[in-house]
């Protein structure tokens, strides 16, 4: 979870055993790790865009424990906010970003 979620402690405070057992979890705000989301969305966003912030609001997670082997988890979000930074390939300060993009492209 820590690989994808920045505010893990806040998210864990919103969880309860009973909500997990009943299969319905509501999370007010989840801040996602920008680098992890960049990896996931690499093929869908412009190559020079760097995700700097990702916030999901009103997240509903439904778990169907009876069909756990198939499509048993559904995730719905009311809002998704992304902050994007357009990087210049000639900027020496963006070297780490472009190195990471090259690795994503090879994978």
Features:
single chain, 107 residues, alpha+beta, three-stranded antiparallel sheet, 4 helices, 36% strand, elongated
Description:
- With 107 residues, the chain is an alpha+beta fold.
- The protein has one domain.
- 30% of the residues lie in helices and 36% in strands.
- It contains four helices and three strands, in the order H-H-E-H-E-E-H.
- A three-stranded antiparallel beta sheet has the order 1-2-3.
- The longest helix is centred in the C-terminal third of the chain and has 12 residues, at 95-106.
- It is elongated, with a radius of gyration of 17 Å.
- The mean pLDDT is 89.
Share in helix: 25-40%
Low-confidence stretches: none
Major sheet = 3 strands, antiparallel
Structural class: alpha+beta
Order of helices and strands: HHEHEEH
Strand content: 35-45%
Count of structural domains: 1
Mean pLDDT: 89
Q: Looking at the structure, what is the overall shape?
A: elongated
For the secondary structure, the number of strands is 3
Oligomer kind: single chain
Q: Largest beta sheet: what is the strand line-up?
A: 1-2-3
- Summed up, the helix count is 4
Report the radius of gyration as a whole number of Å.
17 Å
Distance between the termini: 22 Å
């Amino acid at each position: 979870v820590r690989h994808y979620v920045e505010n893990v402690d806040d998210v864990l405070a919103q969880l309860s055993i009973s909500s997990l057992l009943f299969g319905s979890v509501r999370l007010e705000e989840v801040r996602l790790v920008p680098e992890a989301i960049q990896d996931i969305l690499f093929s869908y966003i412009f190559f020079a865009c760097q995700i700097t912030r990702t916030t999901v609001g009103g997240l509903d997670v439904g778990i169907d424990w009876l069909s756990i082997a198939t499509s048993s988890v559904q995730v719905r979000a009311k809002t998704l906010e992304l902050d994007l930074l357009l990087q210049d390939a000639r900027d020496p300060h963006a070297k780490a970003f472009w190195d990471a993009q090259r690795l994503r492209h090879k994978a």
